[in-house]
Input
Amino acid sequence: MHASPVSQEPLSEHDALLPPPDVDDAESKTSSPLPTQIYVIMFICLAEPIAASVIYPFVIELVSSLDVTHGDDRKVGYYAGVIVSPIFPHSASSHSVATQESIFFLTETCLIFHYGRLSDRIGRRPVVLLGLFGLALSITSFGLSKTFFGLVFSRALSGALNGNAGVIKSMVVELTDSTNQAQGFALLSVTWYIGSTLGPLIGGSLSKPAERFPGVFAARAWDAIGMRGFWTRYPYFLPCFAAAGVAASAWCVALIFLRETLPAKRIHLVRKATSEYGTITWDTERAPPEDPCPTGGLGAVMTRRVGWAISNFMLLALVDVAWVVLQPLVFATHRSSGGLSLSPPTIGFILAAQGLLGGTLQASMFQRIHARFGAVRVYKAALASYAFMFISFIWMVRLGLGSEWGWGWFVLGLHVAASCIASLGYGESSRVFWGIAEMAVGCTYILIASASPSRALLGTTNGLAQTSCSLVRALGPAGAASLFAYSSEGQGTLVYWVCVGVVGLASLTSLGLTE
Output
């Protein structure tokens, strides 16, 4: 079957992604309904934030129980950062947490760009299926790990096998048009908040089931199937297994319901180009001249516009990842080491409430907030919120969080509220940088899409953007957690003031921004 001739004029590479700025007809004002595939993608996306955040309530406690810290809680921060990417309490466990999360983003940095290029050639769906499989495998491995090396290997495996971050964004662009693209990305943001709410709840509620639910998980019935003492030996397997179950369900949904979004003409063209050197020939359709087979690598994608957009987001990502790593560290670390000594269930509840409030704000008020205050003001307010959150850690530690209501809990409430405002920064940053009108939540993703040299390189562009962010997130957790551990040894606050300084640097880059 051959493609019917196209009668309209070819679109330029940027027109293919965004409408001309002077379009002002009725059709441009009417939002197209979102295709049902967007909701399939939403369910698929739910697996990643759940798997990422399920370990937050107990990761510090887990690292502290390993021989790697030798009983010194002040070293936890060093190791925790390697395991957990954006969040963890300080203490001896700080180092471990930083290491694990840094390992995840380090392996992701090395491979995600290539996943983007691969999706431009073989299609989005196969890469998504591989990512979900890797997610389920790695989180299961994490729950069964009894050594620090096992935890690091599990996080490295997760980063190496999961290339979905950039590919999913490419699929949303290909499923939407200029009238509903912002809405599609808004739903992705809401999905992430839902997952970030459920993950900590699962992790905090299901950890150590033999102690919390002895009637079920300490019963002799487990002995009959060869699992005597299993839940005691692996106290954190149950929440990890539950997260793996979500990833496995998402894999099944993707296998059955997810459709390929990469235009078939381009896939056929790629196959024809490669099969000319083999024994197989393909009856293919010719792609339109403005959408050729993706060629070139980094040089073809790294235009000035793409480079400027990515560099700004890298700085914002550095601020965010430092906060994400420090929050669980401060919550879980012992008071004597500069933390709050909160239990995993309490940490899970706080993080879940934070995710719920943030998602509600994004879904219900973002559009009105932007219309009232404008992009630049909201973006700068988000940066200011990050500065407040870092300083509020100092106040919370000094005031303490007792069993009864006090000023410490009041500051914690302000901290959670500020985190919701800070979340608007990612939504507004693209408006600030490029002034793209009528874009709501998820503008950062739209910015990257609009900066892509062409649709043929969309997956590659998103892969490059994700690679850049992953590089920052690979270095940020270890740096923040290690600085936290160093500060804790002297009962100091250096880590928080350094982070405030980084926020100040990010604020300086926004001074020249206009609506």
